[in-house]
């Protein structure tokens, strides 16, 4: 049985530091889990017929708006959030709260799901922007720290 003390230790972790190997690896695992979530939501939308072949073939009302709705939030949640958590004290303190991490993850998945109602291709653009920018930033933070440590 889980004791209250163990639950408090689990809930009160320190802030995220992507320069450590363990946290970097967990960040990459988080990206992998996000890909699985995106795939499951895509499959659910297809099985519930929210997304059909005609929906995928149809052009959105505005291609520029579709690109912006897909790419900008994907980069914000994928790259900007971990950058803020790593390098700014206020956000670093926020990242130590499990509720904030859960809310950020929930916003990520809900944004992906909500973009299906505008256009399914936009949600795929969002997922691609999120995954690629998250991997790029995590690798940059971790690799940059390793390079500086080696050169110092």
TrEMBL record:
Keywords: Membrane, Transmembrane, Transmembrane helix
Any Pfam family the entry gives: DUF8100
InterPro entries linked: DUF8100 (IPR058413)
DUF8100 domain residues: 11-150
Transferase in keyword set: no
Bilayer-spanning residue ranges: 23-43, 63-88, 100-118
Key word Acyltransferase present: no
Protein name: DUF8100 domain-containing protein
